[in-house]
Amino acid sequence: MSAFLALLRRDLRLALRSPGDSATVLLFFVLAVVLFPFGVGPEPQVLARIAAGVVWVTALLACLLALERLFQLDAEDGALEHIVLAPAPLEFLVLAKILAHWLTTGLPLVIVSPLLALMLQLAPEGYGALVLSLALGTPSLSLIGAVGAALALGARRGTVLLPLLVLPLYIPVLIFGAAAVDAATHGLSSRPHLLLLAAILAGALALAPWAAAASIRQAVQ
Fold first, then answer.
1. CA–CA–CA angle 32, 167, 211 (5° rounding)
2. For the chain, which terminal residue's Cβ has fewer other Cβ atoms within 10 angstroms, N or C?
């Protein structure tokens, strides 16, 4: 646990020292959402109908934008080898890096999303479901993305390979996340969709750190 907390503090300090990376993800999220009214028109009915999907798709792409640096920087400066050789289980150290990634990328997206949903004329009934679905879904995106980032380590075209590996696995999270918001805006219960998102998060939490750790060991060897 001490190694887990030490690595988490290290990654958070590094993120605070170079806030440009996290700011780029957040800025991409905001600008991508802002562009949609210019493309589809300012009609409130149209914007309200697509609001949930727009916010979720842009959040997904924003998370994907930050995945490459999850392990790549440590691999380039040699820190990843020290992490692999640490006495603590590699799976827990990988989980610490994933948590730091979510705190610096996913959590800001969750916080900002209600403001963007307001701009897209989302019905008031959907705000709670939007925040809850993103709070459950973005950690799954980080966990699943960590597996893809670990698999892409050392690949000649890792930047191109990473989206191809990760995007198909993101589809269930996207479907249930947008469906939860859509159900809430139509007066239906979003609980089934949120429970499915929680189940995906539980499964990713159980499997992703181990899969990512195995890929990192292979890449380091």
1. 130
2. C
State the Cα–Cα distance between residues 75 and 154, nearest whole angstrom. 9
Closest to 109 in 3D by CA, of 179, 58, 54: 58
Q: Quick one: CA dihedral 13, 19, 20, 21, positive or negative?
A: positive
Distances (CA, A) of 80 to 25, 33, 55, 177: 23, 35, 34, 33
Rounded Cα–Cα distance for residues 141 and 201 (Å): 9
Decide if 106 contacts 24 (C-beta within 8 A). Answer: no
Quickly tell me which residue has 């939860």 as its tokens: 180
Banded pLDDT at 144 (limits 50, 70, 90): very high
Map tokens 């610096």 to a residue: 104
Looking at residue 113, its amino acid is S
pTM of the model: 0.89
d(CA 183, CA 49): 12
Helix axes 107-119, 20-40, angle to 10 degrees: 20
pLDDT digits (tens, 9 = 90+) for 81-111: 888 887 888 888 899 899 998 998 889 999 9
Domain ranges of the chain: 2-220
Q: Which of 125, 126, 110, 122 has the alpha carbon at shortest distance from 59?
A: 110
Question: Is 158's pLDDT higher than 80?
Answer: no
